[in-house]
Amino acid sequence: MMNELIKLKIDGREIEAIEGRPLVDVARENGINIPTLCHFKDIYPPLATCRICTCNINGRIDTACTTLVRDGMEVDVNSPEIADIRKAIVEMLFAEGNHNCPGCSKSGNCDLQHRGYEMGLSISRFPHLFKERPRDFGPERIYMEHNRCVLCKRCIELIKTDDGKNVFSFQNRGHQALVGIDYELEKQLSDEKVLEARDVCPVGAILVKDKSGAAPFGGRKFDLDKSLKYVPTTDLKVELPKDRKPVIATTSLAGCFGCHMSILDIDDELIDIIELVEFNKSPLTDIKKFSKRCDIGIIEGGVANNENAEVLKAFREKCDILVGLGECSIWGGLPAMRNTVDLEDCLEEAYLHSVTSEPGAKIIPRSQDIPQLFDKVYSTNDIVKIDYFIPGCPPNADHIWKVIKTVLLGEQIPIAYQEFKYD
Amino acid sequence: MAANRLRHDRTQILNYLWELQDEKGYISDSDVRRLSGELNFSVVEVEGILSFYHFFHRKPTGKFIIYLNDSMVSEVKGFKKVKEAFEKETGAKFGGVDPTGTFSLFETSCIGLSDQEPAALINFEPFTNLNPKKVKRIIEVLRNGGELEDIKDEVVDHTYSLTDDPVLLRPYKIGAALKKMLKLSPQAVIDIVKASGLSGMGGAFFPTGVKWQFCRRNESFQKYVICNADEGEPGTFKDRVLMNQYPGRMIEGMIIGGYAVGASKGIIYLRAEYRYLKAKLEETLEKFRDIGLLGENVLGKDGFDFDIRIQIGAGAYICGEETALIESLEGERGGPRTKVYFPVEKGLFNKPTIVNNVETFSAVASILELGAENFNSRGTQGSKGTKLLSISGHCKKPGVYEIEWGTKIKDVLKACGARDANYIQVSGPSGLPIRGSEDERTICTEDLLCGGSFMIFDSKTDVLDILTNFSNFFINESCGLCTPCRAGNFLVGEKLSRIRKGLEQEKVLDEIASWSKIIQEASRCGLGKTSTKFLMESIEKFPEVFKEKLVKDKKEKEFNVTEATERYLKYTEKINKS
Ligand SMILES: Cc1cc2nc3c(=O)[nH]c(=O)nc-3n(C[C@H](O)[C@H](O)[C@H](O)COP(=O)(O)O)c2cc1C
Ligand code: SF4
Ligand code: SF4
Ligand code: SF4
Q1: Per-residue pLDDT for B146 more than 60?
Q2: Does the distance separating the beta carbons of A61 and B522 come in below 8 Å?
Q3: pLDDT tens-digit map of B515-571
Q4: Fewest C-beta atoms under 10 Å: which of B29, B406, B470, B498?
């Protein structure tokens, strides 16, 4: 009776399926992608921890992994409201953990990152929490990077010793929950099992010492994903003057100038840009002060001190639209690694106790001429409203070029999947 | 005891952990290792289980562990002063122990004594109606070697009936309901429960007869009856009162349940906050066994065996959720299951199981005594019979009130002597707030459902204090399994504190409402699904309390540079001076 053929509708499309099978699987087999993160083929009942496969099923909001298909079922996967719930959950995960993709060996092979790409996610609507989370080098071969764990429970369910004991287990509860690893039992795992642990982890939380899973750019799992051509980015509409060249200003706040280098990476087409626009205040022109109102301001870097904040506010005043360029501008990026550490400790480490500080150093630099450090690195969007974000560390040159063209030509140029990156 | 008995039964892990916890006040590394060896599962899993529950400690505690309730009712009754007094008198800080190792202080979620707040548990003995003077006296006595036994408070149960012929708060005669049962077939019992229209009193209001019917239908050589005595919703204490006043009635209800669905084992999952009730319950069970109401061939009925054991929880609100409770009973972390199977299909140890609330079982016993008709004729179309409310907060006579479903808010307020009700939280933090002026509303399915908690706050209480307290409750009690509840509630909490600091503009309310809705829709279990209801509703109902704190909408963000540089300036000044 359970293998009866039934009919259901997903996003209006009629589909035949065998009754009682999980909705996520049925949808996928019919070419409808319901994104997941914790879902894993061998685990039943499903973990249902990440909640990313949330859909509207017969008028009720529920997860597709826990739903078994029935005759007459109507499923809404991609209506704006439902897609927004899913996107919000991915954003929560980014806000909750500390995800520094350029420094992560799972980058390019990471399911969370891929979910972000699929959704065209460039900034989380939720403020980053920057909670300090442990990094556990204790086990013999495994290194646990709790900053990246999304608490999906896969490792707990799947990685056991030969006599069936759990090697991983949740510790604590609520927002303090984390995945503990049993040092003694980890020793008993075969090398293959250890690698399996790394590979079942959808993110870069389980790493194996001396065995980097990283592959070169272009050769990673999600560099090659051909199923999705374009990323659904938000619209960018700007009214540009018809009678003159648009004016652009750029700056680098707490960043590394990598994003500016990426602008230079636009190569040949830079010549076109120079034909089409005029640059004002920018490190590219070495113009230090705004000499007129600008149409577009491009901001690299986060906001680490009062000077950054002043420059940013001046940009907001002088530019019609602001584009945040790169991860630092979007959420703090690499400089924000200090956000999980107390400011006092940072200062001491940098000026008093570091190997390069003078022996017996007692002074932390402070004068009228040097900027005053903020308690943490802020996103540009925390300080002023930013109109558009280009993710990446650094952003892909083609992506930058397409955004500029979108503005100049006034028509939306789609961003290819390969051009949308966090690393 | 623990030393010479091998501990190998996983389902007993909470009891093993309690033995260790009670023995020395904490569970040591070697305890964990030994237990893991004996149970034959990993150390990290034992750690995982014990760290799920907030009454187990991994660091040494004082001779007296003091848990002070930090619920909102406690707050309005003087929590802050009592907390300060505890710190002052003991010399310990909350979250720690004093230098002499005598006193440990912890805050804890509602302990079910809202009618006598502020209240605390000291080594799980109740201390009620606290004030700084009383705290001083208690600590003095304990410091000087006094016995806890001698100074603990008697928990007083205030009960009031707003109906002439109460169903639950009526005198109890042992065996009366069981005698009625004896004359009926199991199916006939279920039919009566169905006909009575009784629905679950634990907060989800599922029709009890229907639940039992499902369980009865699922064939199995073993089934279970679980009484949910975890009463964790802040503000509710009706189950405490029922167990203290009429323990036999609840037990009879469980026996009837076992008979009806075909189960032979019953378990009472009693929250650790009610450990002081355990002796009375054990005594009652013993009495039942003595006179043949429990054990083999109950009441002489051939082949009907039924016995009941008590399991003490260990501090986790989520374990009141029925599938989390089952996980906890199986010796796992108390995280809720997915709803792929219902307990009546695959419950405890994957066997058909009914989980019902203390009040539900008690009501079943009364229904058998009084007849379905009697129960069914009370209440409204959608809610049959009567309901216990735990009334607390700003009123003259806090206590447990039996009302007929359909009673008006104003009659409840009048009865308990609430003159200045401004904000009323109906059904606990997971329920809904109403304004005191909405007193024509009625308590029933058709209008306002209430699982039991009814907290009244006057116009002097800062509504933002209430909301912050509730928000913290959910942040602390989320099990952490799913993203929206774990991360979402925390993020909403951060927003609330920014609002209080005056760092948000009016449009933030739309933002909070939309985040709240996402948490509600996408969470895995009832905790997350209800955790933001109070907030969404109070944005609608109490817009003025937000307005006061919010900055008018502007084009620009609120960002305070002075605040952001303050730490740098202070610290450099301090270091560079020295
Ligand atoms: C987070 C959460 C906590 C709960 N706590 C309790 C509780 O303390 N006591 C209770 O009886 N039901 C509680 N419930 C409801 C139970 O899941 C279940 O519905 C109830 O025990 C069924 O019994 P009833 O039908 O007799 O009400 C809780 C539910 C949730 C989601
Ligand atoms: S690659 Fe994945 S796990 Fe690594 S930092 Fe980025 S999102 Fe996190
Ligand atoms: S370590 Fe990886 S697999 Fe394990 S719970 Fe965290 S994210 Fe999931
Ligand atoms: S909703 Fe909250 S309590 Fe329920 S499973 Fe999710 S995290 Fe746990």
Answers
A1: yes
A2: yes
A3: 999 999 999 999 999 999 999 999 999 999 999 999 998 888 889 999 999 999 999
A4: B29
| Burial annotation B315-337 (CB, 10 A radius, 16+ → b, else e) | bbbbbbbbbbbbbbbebbbbbbb
Residue A310, token pair as written in the block? 């002043």
Does domain A99-208 bear CATH number 3.90.1210.10? no
Judge whether A294 is closer than 8 Å to chain B, CB to CB.
no
CATH of the domain at B140: 3.40.30.10
B4: pLDDT confidence band, cut at 50, 70 and 90?
Answer: low
Cβ-based neighbour number of residue A80 at 10 Å = 6
CA angle B241, B314, A186 (to 5 degrees): 165
Give the mean model confidence (pLDDT) for residues B125-150. 97
The enclosing domain of B489 has a CATH number of 1.20.1440.230
Give chain B's domain count. Answer: 5
What is the ipTM for the molecules in this complex?
0.96
User: What average pLDDT does range A393-410 have in this prediction?
Assistant: 92
Containing structural domain, residue B451: 386-458
Q: pLDDT tens digit string along A266-282? A: 988 888 888 889 999 99
Q: Looking at the complex, does the CB of residue A387 fall below 8 Å from at least one CB of chain B?
A: no
What is the residue extent of each domain of chain A?
5-78, 99-208, 231-336+343-419
Q: Record the pTM.
A: 0.96
The 3-state DSSP composition of chain A as helix, strand, coil percent (nearest 5) reads 30, 20, 50
| Res. A84: pLDDT tops 90 | yes
Q: What is the CATH number of domain A5-78?
A: 3.10.20.740
Ligand 4 within 6 A of CB of B391: no
Q: pLDDT digit string (tens) for B370-381?
A: 999 999 999 999
Does residue B317 share a domain with residue B303? yes
B469 and B449 share a domain?
Answer: no
CATH topology of domain A231-336+343-419: Rossmann fold (3.40.50)
Helix axes B533-541, B508-522, angle to 10 degrees: 150
The answer to the question of residue B510 being in a domain is: yes
B485 in contact with ligand 4, CB cutoff 6 A: yes
- The reported pLDDT for the residue numbered B2 is 47
Cβ contact A166–B572 (<8 Å): no
Q: What residue owns the CA closest to ligand 2's atom 1?
A: A107
Q: Which residues 302-331 in chain A show a CB within 8 A of chain B?
A: 305-306, 309, 316
Q: Which of B409, B443, B458 is the last residue of a domain?
A: B458
